[in-house]
Amino acid sequence: MSRTSLVVQKRDASGKSPVARRLRKEGLVPGVVYGASTPESFSVGYLELNAMLRKGVTLVDLEIEGGDKKLTVIKDYQVHPVRGNVVHIDLQEVTMNQTVRTVVQLQLVGENIGVKAGGIITQGMRELHIESQADAIPEVIEHDITNLDLGEVLILRDLPVQPGVTYLDDPGNMIVTISIPRGAKGLKRASDGTPEGDAAAAADEAAAQAAGDSEA
Question: Whole-model pTM above 0.85?
Answer without folding.
Answer: no
